[in-house]
# Entry
Amino acid sequence: MWQDKIQAVLKSKEMTQEELAIDADLSQSAVSAFLSGRKNPSLNSLIKMTTALDMTLVELFSPIEPKSTYEELSRLKLELHKIIESAESSQLHSLSLLVAISKKILR
# Structure
């Protein structure tokens, strides 16, 4: 379920539901109700939560991968962002090719 994926992302980012609520501009009680299944979120609330978690709705509703795999992909994504940020302009073309290849592999 999508709630499990959000819980896995929260865990991998060492983030609490309260922090998610603040970042998503939602009440903590609403986030808790959404993630426990007591209440269904609106599309707007889902967008706010996924944006706060740096993910897309497509990622949220794609089949759930084993948590360890998802956590590993999250870690690799963060490392890739660090590499891109520290790259010189001459290296950015090579990095963009690497990203494109990685996206194809991960599909």
Summary: The chain has two domains: 1-63, 65-107.
